[in-house]
Amino acid sequence: MRHNVLLALVLCCVTILAALPASAQETRTITDAAGRSVEIPVNVERVICSGPGCLRLLTYLQAQDMIVAVDDIEARRSQFDARPYALANPWFKDLPIFGEFRGFDNPELILCLDPQPQVIFKTYATMGHDPQELQDKTGIPVVVLEYGNLARSFDKVAQCLRLMGGVVDREERAEEVVGYMQSLIDDLKARSQDIPESERIATFIGGVAHKGPHGFQSTEPTYPPFAFVGAENLGAEGLAGNTETSDVAKEMILAWDPEVLFLDLSTLQLGEGADGLHELRTDPAYQALTAVQSGKVYGVLPYNWYTANYGSILANAYFVGAVLYPERFGDVDPAARADEIYTLLVGEPVFETMNGFFGNMAFEAVNVN
């Protein structure tokens, strides 16, 4: 029965497409990030975005008005939200749903959309529905994107934006975004690159999210803001050879006794009594840390929220730089810089709104005594 319904939907869509004027069906072939040759319409006006961060990228390109549906993460309402692209576009939550988040698309829902998308963008292709299978089931071209990493593979970030921009006729905007991000990274590094190794401050960030909230021991060994300002990331030592977010042994944090600590406020999602802030406030071992005793624990914006929020990474980097090397960042107001970044990337200054979800503790010394 289900097969018959799906077949009927496919036939319906084929009939609709066949009725379009020939000019509307003119196509071109591109190569996506998976190396697949994908035939897409010459003029793309309607799309959907599948997978973590995909709709964020489309928003960066100022092409979010092309979407005809969203995955179900956009319709969820939570006490917390650290996705600037969604805060700047609250209307996303009112759109039809085409599947579950993290790429678990529903071909039948996609075929029922009216109007139909002309292209499906897909990040993290190994998550959820297989791209080629999705394309075969829907008859809609699927373009795979490689999301990249701002610190370790900026070239991939640039390629991703350029590929998406080429599909939706936003090439100039893609170059603007790539150039803007690169200029900020260059500025961050220029401010701190000549600091001698002996003067670089060893620090640690805890509470980093990864597919959900975690406690204080969760850290990022390649945390981009630390990399951009040349901070010594103790988490990299504790997770040698690991590039992914992971828990480090509590005993190591105590042995390092960092002079400065940062807390990723995504940990607050765990709820009072379970989050990293509660651990710092109540665990006698953490209370004995030098940073806790001296009041040098600082809140930073969640950056890993439906994958990496590039704007928040860059905003956090300016705050981290201002804390660790104030003489190098004395001209920067981190909150104002955050809103400059968000305005360029997502069109709205959303720092205050987002910070409010997290107790207004971002870019501040956090009370842990």
What does this structure look like?
This protein has helices spanning 2-18, 54-60, 84-87, 107-111, 131-138, 154-167, 171-192, 224-229, 234-238, 250-256, 276-282, 284-287, 290-293, 310-324, 334-346, 351-357; strands spanning 27-31, 37-41, 47-50, 70-71, 97-100, 104-105, 119-123, 142-145, 202-206, 218-219, 232-233, 246-247, 260-264, 297-300. The longest helix has 22 residues, at 171-192. Strand 4 (70-71), helix 3 (84-87) and strand 5 form a beta-alpha-beta unit. The strands form five sheets. The chain has a four-stranded parallel sheet with strand order 11-9-13-14. The protein has a three-stranded parallel sheet with strand order 3-7-8, sandwiched between helices. It is α/β, with parallel strands linked by helices. It has 16 helices and 14 strands. The chain has two domains: 2-169, 3-Layer(aba) Sandwich (Rossmann fold), CATH 3.40.50; 195-357, Nitrogenase molybdenum iron protein domain (Rossmann fold), CATH 3.40.50. The chain starts with a helix and ends in a 12-residue tail after the last helix.
